[in-house]
Amino acid sequence: MSNTNIAVLGAQWGDEGKGKIVDMLTPHFSTVARYQGGHNAGHTVYVKGAKFVLHLIPSGILHPGVTCVIGNGVVVDPQALFKEIDELARMGIDVDGRLRISEKAHVILPYHRELDVLSEARRGERKIGTTSRGIGPAYEDKVGRRGIRVCDLLGDRDALADEVRENVSARNRIIKDSTLDWKPVFDQLIGYGERMRDWVTDVSLFLHETMKEGKGVMFEGAQATLLDIDHGTYPFVTSSNASVGGVCTGLGVPPKAIGGVLGVAKAYTTRVGEGPLPTELSGELADRLRESGQEYGASTGRPRRCGWFDAVVVRYSARINGLDAVALTKLDVLDGLSEIRICTGYKTSAGTITEFPADLRPLSSAEPVYETLPGWSSPTKGVTQFDALPAEARRYIRRLEEASGVDCAIISTGSDRSETIVKRGSVVEQWLAD
Ligand code: GDP
Ligand code: IMO
Ligand code: MG
């Protein structure tokens, strides 16, 4: 059991394989805690051929005895939560006694979903391509100081009734010709509160005590650095801090509690939804990556946009998050390609840039600067030792490391837990040995 607390988070645009990496590292930790996002996340984990897709519940839940925490920074749709819990129960996973939900987490209400869809429709061509889960509107209410928190569902009923009445009438003013009645919403919330009651916890205190006992905690990110509300490709982002700062605010833990940061990055790049993707491919090559990588959204089923590995992006993520190491996933998807490219900069009308810009406009006409490396013909699929990888694959990884400035301590060569390389002498090996 590790006594180093580590954060595992997305270094690109999401769907890097965080779920798989968190699941395979979980046996070394007592607790896995989600710090932001909501059920817009879709973290897929395969265990001996059985597929689990986790949305709100941390990806540590598949290991018996591990406590899973949903932090205050997460927005919780109770309906989605119960659906996920019921689905896990059907697959033989019992969350009772192992799940804790922050009393300060904000609740996604049914009309947040409607507002999400409406806001996208109003943006028209400028739409974000959200997951339509009501994430943005729920965070808007939180920041607007009119949100409803988990503790409100269990507190004074008159106060909750006032809040719901106020919120529903505000919503009715936004949605034309709408006359939603507040009372059924209120009744539903009371029911949700009762079902959650036993799990509701002072999460900051719980984590503080766990860490004081020397039991390691893993902080699990959803979405990714380039989807972060502050550091991502704004406005084509999600509405929370997916990067490492979110750990502290989203769980009530101090920065010093974070002993290590692991960024998860694919051996290429994908993105779902709108917004810039400088290395995006089209045609046969894009289809090839999409099909062999099964690049379809775990939450919405949307095809993911695919492109080459972008070292500018991962270097940027390394800086923002202070990455100690990268877990490089889906190396096997590149098996059989004759050539592989790495982007090291963008050629814009104002010259070549090598740092990710705040203003996205130059990116729309930017040309990626590529290095081309030879591919490999023998498969990496299922390889568990670095030295057993084809020489060209090792060379590709080494070049990625140089260009992004971070060591790839973990290399994933398939979706199963066992299809993983932990590099000897890496920082991850040290964390796990602590
Ligand atoms: P997350 O949101 O970051 O947890 O990632 P997703 O679960 O949305 O998407 C990653 C997908 O890639 C999942 O279907 C995983 O099962 C799969 N996956 C993860 N690692 C590997 C790998 O090394 N090779 C292959 N082929 N698939 C992988
Ligand atoms: P995981 O945790 C990939 C994207 C959406 C959209 C933008 C805003 O599985 O990596 P939102 O519904 O959050 O308001 O949508 O963010 N997005 C994700 N893309 N992986 C995710 O989660 C995502 N969660 C949201 O596609 O572009
Ligand atoms: Mg996902």
Architecture overview:
By secondary structure, the protein is of the alpha/beta class. It is built from 14 helices and 20 strands. It has helices at residues 18-25, 78-90, 110-123, 135-143, 150-153, 157-174, 182-196, 203-212, 245-251, 283-292, 311-321, 361-364, 391-404, 427-433, and strands at 6-10, 31-34, 43-47, 50-54, 67-70, 75-76, 99-102, 106-107, 200-201, 217-220, 260-266, 269-271, 305-307, 309-310, 325-329, 339-348, 351-353, 367-374, 408-412, 420-422. A ten-stranded mixed sheet has the order 9-7-5-2-10-1-11-15-19-20, with helices on both faces. Strands 14, 16, 17 and 18 form a four-stranded mixed sheet that branches. α3 (110-123) crosses α4 (135-143) and α6 crosses α7 (182-196). The radius of gyration is 22 Å and the shape is globular. The model has no long low-confidence stretch (mean pLDDT 96). Bound molecules: guanosine-5'-diphosphate, 6-O-phosphoryl inosine monophosphate and magnesium ion (MG). Magnesium ion binds at residues 14-15, 41-43, 298.
Q: Kindly, what is the distance between the CA atoms of the first and last residues, rounded to a whole number of angstroms? A: 8 Å
Largest sheet: 10 strands, mixed
Oligomer description: single chain
Cα-atom Rg, whole angstroms?
A: 22 Å
Annotation field: number of helices: 14
* Small molecules held by this entry: guanosine-5'-diphosphate, 6-O-phosphoryl inosine monophosphate, magnesium ion
Strands, total number: 20
